[in-house]
Amino acid sequence: MKTVALKSVFEAFDYVMAHYYPFGMEDYAERTDSYAVISIQDTHTDGFGFIFRPNEFCEDVLTLYFDDIVKEVEGAFLFTDEQAEHIIDFILANQEVETLLVHCYGGQSRSRAVAAFAVKMLGGDNAKYFETGNPNAYVYKTLEEAWQRRQQKAD
Questions:
Q1: Tell me, what's the pLDDT at 55?
Q2: pLDDT value for 87
Q3: What span, in angstroms and rounded, lies between the C-alpha atoms of 103 and 99?
Q4: Structure confidence by residue, pLDDT tens digits, 44-61
Q5: How many domains are contained in the chain?
Q6: Which CATH number do you get for residue 66?
Q7: With contact defined as beta carbons under 8 Å apart, do 146 and 85 qualify?
Q8: What's the domain range around 111?
């Protein structure tokens, strides 16, 4: 994986559409990189009205539903350990793609936490995610703890 791309839902849609071309006109695709998508959707709206699907450029999609909260809130869904495990599995399974596209509604909290974690998990420097925004602390901590448990099991 060369790049982790942090996007809002609108930017993610634009990114995916930049890979589109009319039938038989492959040369018109603006982008041709391979990518995998972690799509973080809201639960209170039952998602954003569209779901990404694998295609010629998109190797894989993981769609998760949880809300931007850091503790239990009635009527909202907190990020879970099981979702953290799914993210770790997804990152490991898609290391060969050129871009890991991570989005939530605003691209500022939930997806920022996941993107920061992915960069760190893959051995990169994730400082920019904390310097330029506010990752959801609960999501990031849950991912780190799941990754540490997995590494301890492997040892």
A1: 93
A2: 98
A3: 13
A4: 887 788 889 999 999 999
A5: 1
A6: 3.90.190.10
A7: yes
A8: 3-154
Average pLDDT for 129-141: 97
Coil/strand/helix, residue 39: strand
97 to 32, 56, 59, 141, 147: CA distances (angstroms)? 12, 12, 7, 25, 21
CB atoms within 10 A of CB 104: 30
Instruction: Tell me the C-alpha distance between 128 and 137, whole Å.
Output: 15
Q: How far is CA 106 from CA 42, 44, 133, 134, 151, in A?
A: 11, 15, 11, 12, 31
Spatial CA neighbour of 44 closest among 67, 73, 74: 67
Angle between helices 110-121 and 81-93 (to 10 degrees): 50
Closest CA to 42 of 8, 13, 18: 8
Token pair recorded at residue 134: 């506010």
Q: What distance in Å separates the CA atoms of residue 48 and residue 41, rounded to the nearest whole number? A: 6
